[in-house]
UniProtKB/TrEMBL annotation:
Signal peptide: none annotated. InterPro entries: HET (IPR010730). Residues 20-160 form the Heterokaryon incompatibility domain. It comes from Schizothecium vesticola. The lineage of its organism: Eukaryota, Fungi, Dikarya, Ascomycota, Pezizomycotina. It comes from the Eukaryota. This is Heterokaryon incompatibility protein-domain-containing protein.
């Protein structure tokens, strides 16, 4: 397994002690940029460059990005890594989900390099005792943005979200965080409990979930799109 050292912009061999983030994004159909191992290409696609920035700002040094951490022209290495998707994503500290932009990594992560504009939030309705009541308008907008994104329509990103322990979603609306215990939104100062704590399958499409049977997974996965039909099994082997 290889990782990207975000400080040196080089590809390094992973060690068990290394904590790392992973990136989930839409690859696109263009060829991988030319680079000379172990150095990353310069310039990097904006989405990957921004993911490196986020990793460093979160206090971590390493990130896994399939584009460079899998030898694309080495069939043996490619297969070996595809078979380890469960390990790669489930052992990452968190996964950065680039749920914005088009079908390639040129858009960047909103709020990092592309400006997002000031968001106007009017959720606070009032306080009752020690509880603050807020509307869910912006929460819904965030989920709608994820649902409508190219990222959420692709086959490969399904297992990347499903296998991750924690996900940071970047959209043009805001940044949100999801783990098995709670969800948090950029516009709120406190996290929310999971809306579907009983494991409702409506929740599962956002990742960090326990599957409710193979039929649910097949249904959700079969709705996704892929460039090459030959990827159908490989893109869900981890799940």
């Amino acid at each position: 397994m290889k990782l990207i050292d975000c400080q040196t912009h080089t590809i390094v061999s992973a060690a068990p002690s290394m904590q790392y983030l992973a990136l989930s994004y839409v690859w696109g159909q263009g060829p991988v940029e030319k680079y000379t191992y172990p150095h990353l290409p310069d310039p990097l696609p904006p989405t990957i460059k921004d993911a490196i920035t986020v990793t460093l700002k979160l206090g971590y040094q390493y990130i896994w990005v399939d584009r460079y951490c899998i030898w694309q022209e080495d069939p043996a290495h490619k297969v070996s890594q595809i078979l380890r998707m469960m390990d790669i994503y489930s052992r990452a500290v968190a996964t950065i989900a680039a749920a914005s932009g088009g079908p390639n990594p040129t858009y960047g992560l909103p709020g990092v390099s592309p400006s997002r504009g000031r968001q106007r939030h009017h959720q606070i309705a009032g306080r009752v005792g020690n509880r603050m009541l807020v509307s869910g308008a912006t929460d819904r907008k965030q989920k709608e943005a994820i649902e409508k994104s190219v990222w959420d329509s692709r086959a490969w990103t399904f297992q990347e979200a499903a296998l991750s322990r924690r996900i940071l979603y970047f959209t043009d609306v805001q940044v949100s965080f999801l783990c098995a215990g709670f969800e948090a939104y950029e516009h709120l100062t406190r996290p929310l409990a999971l809306l579907y704590a009983d494991g409702d399958p409506r929740r599962s499409k956002y990742g960090v979930h326990e599957a409710r049977g193979a039929s649910s997974l097949v249904y959700q996965y079969s709705r996704r799109r892929m460039t090459y039909s030959s990827d159908a099994l490989n893109a869900c082997l981890g799940v």
